[in-house]
Amino acid sequence: MKKILWLACLSYLVIGIAHIIGGSILEQIVTHYEISYAQGGQWIMNQFFGFLVGVLLGPLLSTKLGKRLTVVLAFGSLTVAEAVYSLLPPWELMLVVAPFAGFGFGMIESVVGALIIDLYKDKKAAAMSRIETFFGLGALFIPLIAAVLIRYHIWEWSFPILTAISGVTLLLWLSLSFGKQIDNIISQPSKQENVQAPKLAKYERRAIPFLTLSMIFFFLYVGVEMSVSHYLPSIMIERSGLSESSAASMLSLFWVFMVIGRFVCGMLADRFGYIKYLLVSMLIAVLAFVGMVLLQEAWALYVMIALSGLGFSGVFGIGLVYVNACIQGLTDRTTSLLVACGGIGGALLPKLTGWLMDHYAVGVTVNYVAALVAVMLGFMIAMIFVGGNRNLQERGH
C-alpha cells in the first residue's frame, strides 16, 4: 500500500507542476511568440477544455480499461504534449496540443484521487492529504524553479523538465508491482462492481441535493483558490503599498502554509472527524479573509494570509473524502464531478476577479473574495445538515 501511495504522491506532484507551469512562464511565452496576453490566455483556456474532458472521461475509461491503463494513457497524453511544447513549435500547434496536456493532468487528478479513496478504507483522510501535499509542493516550487530558469535565460527548459518527470512517472505506473491484490484491483476493468452492487449504479434521489451542494462548494473553493493565486500580489501592492518582491512573497507564504496544513490535515480529520475538521477549517478561512477586509497593516496581512493558507489547506482533499463517505459506491463518478466543478470554478471566477480589479477599487475585490468564502461556509453547513455522517446511497435510512 505504501508503494502505490508514494506513486500517487509523485503523480500529484506532476499535476501540481502541470497546473501552474503555464502561468509561471506566460510572460516569456508571450514575448517569444510575439502574441497578445489574450492569445496566451487562449492557450491556457485550451488546456482547461482538455482538463474537463479528461476529468469527465476518467470514470468511463477506468470502467472499460482499468485504472492502471487509464492512468498510463493520461500520463502518455501529458508527456507527449509537454514534449511538443519543449520544441517551441509554431503557435498554432501549441494551441492544438494544449487540450492533450489538460486531458492528461485532468484525468490523472480524478482517477488517482478516486483510486486512493477506494484503496484506503480506514485512513482515507490521511492518504488523501498526503497526495494533496505533493500537489501543493509542485504548485509551490515550480514558480521558484521557473524564476531561476528565467533569470539565466533558459526558461524554455521548464517544459523538458516536466516532460522528463512525467515520462518517469509513466514508466513507474507501467512497470511497478504493488502486490497481487492491488495489481488486480488497478489492472482489471471495474465492470464487476456493477454486478456486485446494481443498486449503486446511479445516485439515489436522496443523495442528489447533497451532491448538488457539494458541486457548488467545489466550484467556489477552486475559484477562490485560483483567484488568490492569480491576484494576491496585485491586491497587496495596491492595498498596502508593498514592493513587487514583498507582494510576491505573500503568495509564497499562502502556499507554504497550504503545504504545512496538508501535512497534518489528514491526521486531524481522522482523529476529530471530517465534519469538525471541515467546519473549523472554513471558520479559520472566513476569519482570515474578513481580516484582510478590515486590516491594512503589512504585518497583519501576513498573519491573515498565513491563516487563510492553513484554513484552505485540507478543504479540497478532506472535502472529497467526506462527500464520497456520504455517497458510497460511486467514487470514480463523484470524484470526477467534483474535480470538474472545481476546474470550471477555477476558470471562471478568476476572470470575474480580474474584471473587478480592472474596473473597481481593490477594496471591492477583497470584499468580493471574502464574501465568496463566507458563502462557501454557508454551503458547507448546508452539506453537513443534509449529509450528516450517513451513507445517502443506502435505502431505508
Automatic annotation (TrEMBL):
Any one GO CC term of the record: plasma membrane
UniProt keyword Heme, yes or no: no
Residue ranges of every copy of the Major facilitator superfamily (MFS) profile domain listed in the record: 4-390
TM stretches of this protein: 44-62, 69-88, 94-119, 131-151, 157-176, 207-226, 246-265, 277-295, 301-323, 335-356, 368-388
Location, primary (coarse class): membrane
Keywords per UniProt: Membrane, Transmembrane, Transmembrane helix, Transport
Pfam families per record: MFS_1 (PF07690)
Membrane topology of the entry: Multi-pass membrane protein
GO terms, molecular function: transmembrane transporter activity
Similarity field: Belongs to the major facilitator superfamily.
Protein name (record): MFS transporter
